[in-house]
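[Discussion] Sanity-checking designs against the backbone

I'm trying to build intuition for which residues belong where. Below is a structure token string of 749 positions. I'd appreciate it if someone posts a full sequence so I can compare it with mine line by line.
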């Protein structure tokens, strides 16, 4: 469309602008986002259970002892060596424990009993000489010591202190404790009901994980289903609005692109935008939530290792931005090539008879192949960018993971991290990496959607005919008045010194045209191709507005009235016999609702149906309609391809007769009608002349001669006006046109 703005956006602004169409479905979007958050929480819950489970699998510890150890470490500001059979302090030692007199490598053999309000111990009592204890007894005793430390002062505002007995030094130390965190209390209470035996406790935890997984997957279903629903609804709202806008924009807005470009925007571009909506409501919500929750969990487990990971993130963002920029450019080029390809296919199929008649199949194949190769090149480019982005990102992720493993190994050796904690952080890292990998695809999809949205808004932002009419009318009347309704034609139509030039044309199509047409007269407009005949009548319906001059109906400038009221007074039959999908009756009564002949539901609609048949009879279309299967109710498919050119033309004439407009425009309306039908239609037109003001554009002089006035045009000017006999004597152009038709059709008119 020739007057559309250039797109200079380098971000996703057009796509985010399109996202406002999701607002009517905000309830679905909110539920979808909430479901995505729940999926992330379920995933985090699964990660949380990994530390105690791994502790059981790697060290033979119980889940209870593993949880007690974690809480005791937090409350004492120490690290314990992961040894199920004893409680030993790791290096280095600092904070409360060091201030109380504890040293690195001290082994704690006893602790003051847990407070009375603490739940009963899950460990059986171990008595007798410690030298005779089994490994299980030692493990239970170590777990009991950790339990006492963890529960001391946990439910009170005063965290209190715990008395610890240190082996070898035969020393009892009072260590003040930190206040227990809410999640520590939750963990303490949660493990209280677990079986003590490792296999049974792990099985119980896995059963809980299975329940969480089922609930999480249900939430995931709602998240994906509702997000897809919202995307489909929003995209079709845009498609509906785009179609409405296309119907309302001026003809001049179509420029040189034509119907194929509009079709491409309605179908291909909206589909790409819909994919973008699905992406932004799906992966772009779910994956970041998962990544953020995994990141927060990783920070909680080991902030040092996680901070190291953050340092490497900007490099990932830089690569994603680079790939996104390339994808955006390739996507816009592919969309343009797709529109050109649709135009080629449409032109070939509509003119297939001409293609075959001129043996142009090879020519069309070559032209189609050239356009197709251009499209393939752009699609291959998009595929190459899409394909290379994932391997590059995954390679970077692998390098990052290697660096993280090395760092984690070092932290384990210096007792800053346990093996279960490291494995858990690595799982979190894997989830973050997977989310980043999918995010690279999200970015590519958003770039495609942004390019599509930019093309859609090029059309949606065009002013409608009504908006254009409002601006023109206010400029003419010097105020804020709304274009008024045009009353029915009473006296005359006047063209006053009309000048009009098509966009990008070097010379005017009309230049100083003036013409007065009284009501009820028939005016035949003749001239060579390109003389301005069709343009003159296009201005009458305000498909275009003149550059200068005025068109008056009963003295009213048509630019000051609404286009709707103007076009209600005009029936148009063009040289392109357009048949709409639907039945014969629906095509004749185009724009009105018809009654079902088997079950008419109102006298008004029955009257409409009677008018349909009467209009078909007057256009001499009734006979061939009733011969078809189903008659007036036969559905015409493929734009009426089952009809001959003459039949389609008579159907269009019946449509014009049905609408009973006071002005009738016949633009080469009999060009595809056989001689017999033309003669009958002329008789019908003779009757219409007394009822309507008729403009006829025709090359056949059999149609022209009966007009009240013949207007001869040449190079955008009127060079002759009068009756047939008069013009034969006074207008050389008219003489030449008449003589050429006589020579082209021996036997005369």
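Best answer:
Here's mine. Compare freely.
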């Amino acid at each position: 469309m020739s007057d559309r703005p250039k797109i200079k956006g380098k971000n996703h602004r057009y796509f985010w602008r399109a996202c406002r169409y999701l607002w009517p479905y905000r309830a679905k979007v909110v539920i979808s986002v909430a479901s995505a958050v729940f999926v992330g929480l379920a995933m985090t819950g699964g990660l949380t259970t990994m530390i105690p489970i791994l502790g059981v699998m790697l060290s033979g510890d119980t889940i209870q002892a593993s949880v007690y150890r974690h809480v005791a470490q937090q409350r004492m500001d120490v690290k314990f060596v992961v040894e199920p059979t004893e409680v030993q302090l790791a290096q280095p030692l600092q904070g409360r424990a060091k201030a109380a007199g504890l040293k690195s490598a001290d082994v704690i053999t006893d602790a003051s009993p847990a407070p009375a309000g603490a739940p009963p111990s899950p460990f059986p009592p171990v008595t007798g000489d410690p030298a005779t204890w089994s490994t299980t007894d030692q493990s239970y005793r170590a777990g009991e010591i950790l339990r006492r430390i963890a529960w001391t002062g946990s439910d009170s505002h005063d965290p209190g202190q715990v008395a610890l007995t240190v082996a070898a030094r035969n020393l009892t130390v009072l260590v003040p404790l930190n206040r227990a965190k809410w999640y520590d209390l939750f963990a303490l209470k949660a493990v209280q009901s677990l079986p003590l035996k490792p296999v049974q406790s792990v099985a119980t935890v896995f059963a809980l994980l299975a329940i969480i997984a089922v609930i999480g997957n249900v939430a995931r279903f709602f998240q994906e289903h509702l997000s897809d629903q919202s995307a489909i609804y929003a995209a079709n709202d845009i498609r509906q609005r785009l179609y409405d806008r296309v119907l309302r924009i001026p003809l001049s807005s179509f420029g040189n692109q034509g119907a194929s470009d509009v079709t491409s925007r309605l179908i291909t571009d909206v589909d790409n935008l819909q994919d973008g909506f699905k992406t932004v409501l799906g992966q772009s919500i779910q994956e970041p939530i998962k990544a953020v929750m995994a990141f927060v969990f990783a920070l909680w487990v080991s902030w040092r290792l996680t901070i190291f990971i953050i340092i490497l993130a900007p490099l990932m963002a830089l690569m994603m931005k680079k790939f996104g920029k390339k994808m955006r450019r390739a996507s816009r080029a592919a969309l343009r090539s797709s529109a050109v390809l649709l135009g080629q296919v449409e032109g070939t199929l509509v003119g297939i008879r001409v293609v075959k008649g001129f043996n142009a199949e090879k020519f069309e194949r070559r032209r189609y192949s050239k356009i197709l190769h251009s499209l393939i090149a752009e699609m291959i480019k998009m595929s190459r960018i899409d394909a290379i982005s994932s391997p590059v990102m995954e390679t970077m992720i692998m390098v990052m993971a290697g660096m993280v493993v090395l760092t984690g190994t070092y932290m384990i050796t210096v007792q800053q991290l346990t093996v279960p904690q490291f494995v858990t952080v690595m799982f979190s890292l894997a989830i973050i990496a997977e989310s980043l990998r999918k995010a690279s695809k999200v970015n590519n999809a958003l770039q495609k959607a942004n390019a599509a949205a930019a093309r859609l808004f090029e059309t949606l932002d065009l002013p409608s005919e009504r908006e254009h009419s409002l601006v023109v009318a206010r400029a003419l009347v010097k105020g804020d008045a709304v274009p008024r309704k045009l009353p029915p034609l009473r006296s005359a139509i006047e063209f006053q010194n009309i000048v009009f030039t098509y966009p990008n044309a070097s010379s005017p199509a009309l230049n100083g045209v003036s013409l007065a047409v009284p009501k009820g007269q028939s005016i035949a407009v003749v001239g060579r191709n390109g003389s301005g005949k069709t343009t003159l009548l296009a201005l009458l319906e305000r498909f275009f507005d003149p550059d200068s001059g005025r068109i008056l109906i009963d003295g009213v400038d048509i630019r000051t009235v609404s286009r709707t009221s103007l076009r209600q007074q005009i029936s148009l039959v063009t040289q392109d016999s357009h048949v709409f999908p639907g039945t014969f009756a629906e095509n004749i009564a185009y724009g009105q609702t018809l009654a079902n002949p088997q079950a008419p539901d109102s006298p008004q609609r029955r009257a409409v149906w009677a008018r349909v048949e009467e209009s078909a009879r007057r256009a001499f279309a009734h006979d061939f309609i009733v011969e078809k299967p189903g008659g007036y109710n036969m559905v015409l498919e493929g734009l009426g391809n089952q009809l001959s050119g003459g039949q389609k033309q008579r159907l269009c004439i019946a449509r014009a007769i049905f609408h009973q407009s006071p002005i009738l425009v016949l633009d080469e309306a009999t060009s595809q009608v056989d001689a017999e039908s033309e003669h009958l239609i002329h008789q019908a037109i003779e009757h219409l002349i007394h009822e309507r003001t008729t403009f006829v554009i025709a090359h056949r002089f059999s149609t022209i001669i009966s007009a009240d006035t013949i207007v001869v045009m040449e190079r955008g000017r009127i060079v002759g006006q009068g009756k047939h006999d008069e013009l034969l004597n006074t207008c050389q152009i008219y003489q030449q046109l008449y003589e050429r038709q006589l020579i082209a059709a021996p036997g005369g008119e």
